[in-house]
Amino acid sequence: MNMYRHELRDILKPTMIWTFSIMAITIFFFSMYPTFSKEAESLRRMLEGFPQAILEALNFDINAFTSILGFYSYIFVYISLAGAIQAMILGTGIISREIREKTADFLLTKPVTRKAIMTSKLLAALTAIIITNIGYVSAAYLMAAIVESEGFQQGVFFLISLSLLFIQLIFLAIGLITAVMVSRLKSVLPVSLGTVFGFFVINMFAKSIGDDKMGYFTPFYYFDSMYVLQHKAYDPELMMLTIILIIMMVTGSYVMYAKKDIHTI
Amino acid sequence: MNVIEINGLTKFYGKARGIEDVTFSVKEGEIFGFIGPNGAGKSTTIRTLLSLIYPTGGSAAIFGKDIIKDAREIKKDVGYLPSEVFYYDNMKVKDLLNYSASFYNKDCSTRIKELADRLDLDLNKKIDDLSFGNKKKVGIVQGLLHSPKLIILDEPTSGLDPLMQQTFFDLLKEENEKGVTILFSSHILSEVQRLCDRVAIIKDGKIVKVEKISTLRENNYKKFHIETKTPIEQSRFNFEGIKDLETDGHSIRFLFKGDLNPIMSRIAELDIANLWIEEPDLEEIFMHYYEKEEQGHEHV
């Protein structure tokens, strides 16, 4: 409990900054909706001139664009990108910080198991992600209700919103295992940004060429908001894959962290 | 009873040697020195004992418990002070020490205050604002606040001024009088000489010798330096047990090991102006020891 509190206090400030930023982007995006929906017809004509592959890569579905949920599923791609970066930085940082800031000797010579250390860090990170998601979903729901006076399908809305949580969980797990595997992770930011953008680009590419198999290699594909919009559900197969991947990476992190040599500076 | 028992402990970093077949034990209530040049394997041994790194061979036990399996149990009663201390910079000293104390199921607040007073450490400062020496003090308090039964120190004195070093050594001696065992690693021999009962000498990852400090000195040469009023012939000192004989007109120097009586009577025959008989300090003993080792290796 003491370690959890310590970790949480340490990540609370960046978490708040991330949460408010993501909320701000969300509010900004939704505030553009009235303009978009009014100009839908001219937008449609303009987009017809674009090559189909580019539209698919950018997640543009012209017909879906005129409804609030269609609009939401479009902007959500960029919100999930931000969320993924936050989660990956959180995952890598929470483990590698002890070694980078040379405090590992302090913590690991206390009467605690490495398992307990990992659990405290993981729970603190989960708490941070839950805080972000609560902030995000509230902002998104409030804005959607404001800009769309005629109402919308709340189930689909929440399914899309909730995929942020799952995407963040995957990237948190990716961050954890990266930090545990690399013996001395010096800079969290480039590694995190590189990984997240890498997966993001793979997703765009997979969609533009319509290659479903390629989609398996990027977490962004697992919670495609267009799919959720059309099917009013997550892809069950990909959902299973998500859960399996998270469990595998988290378990792997525990096992490797327990065996890891903590070197002197 | 042995507090620390190390048996053939080996650690390789890939192919690079850390330590090889290290075996020694530390008895309860002992101040045990662990000495060797930088890179000899002192920290590797200590970090393995604390399960910060894991051995590639051999085993070790502290309080009779396995260092890997029972690491958590063991650490309840171990205090550790590393050579370089780094703590969460944005915390106050007080908060860090309370955080440290929160890992042990006892009230450490009086002990924290007591130690901070002794070391003249301001509890309300931010760790970030502390000098290196003051951070070191935080390290000392942090290592002692839970009244451990075993204190492990890895080159602990760097950054402490001589006065603070004295206070620190006094603290260690007081703890030792209460029955606490201390493992003290250092490459500064005078520290070890001042504090320790026994010492293990490590070189190139291997233990060269484990010996009582007093025995190390007994078995060794005495340094003679004589000044006479008349010139001396070197042949007067053709003795069994004399080494490194140097004469320079009115002055003669040599090392001697053996029965002191015949040499004293021989000296008495001289017209002495001045006389020094000194114990070589540990530094000289060790240098001698290391040289011997190296020559030995070369012959093989």
Automatic annotation (TrEMBL), chain A:
In terms of domain of life, where is this protein from?
Bacteria
Task: Provide GO CC annotations from the record.
Answer: plasma membrane
Q: Does the keyword Protein biosynthesis apply?
A: no
- The transmembrane segments are 12-33, 71-95, 122-144, 156-181, 188-206, 238-257
Q: Which UniProt keywords apply?
A: Membrane, Transmembrane, Transmembrane helix
Q: Which GO terms describe its molecular function?
A: ABC-type transporter activity
The protein in question is named ABC-2 type transport system permease protein
From TrEMBL, chain B:
Source organism, top-level taxon: Bacteria
Q: Which CDD domains does the record cross-reference, listed alphabetically? A: ABC_DR_subfamily_A
| UniProt-recorded Gene Ontology molecular function terms | ATP binding; ATP hydrolysis activity
- The residue ranges of the ABC transporter domain are 4-229
Pfam annotation, one family: ABC_tran
List the InterPro entries hit by this protein, alphabetically: AAA+_ATPase, ABC_transporter-like_ATP-bd, ABC_transporter-like_CS, ABC_transporter_ATP-binding, P-loop_NTPase
Keyword set for this entry? Answer: ATP-binding, Nucleotide-binding, Transport
Family designation = Belongs to the ABC transporter superfamily.
**Protein name as annotated:** ABC-2 type transport system ATP-binding protein
Organism encoding this protein? Melghiribacillus thermohalophilus
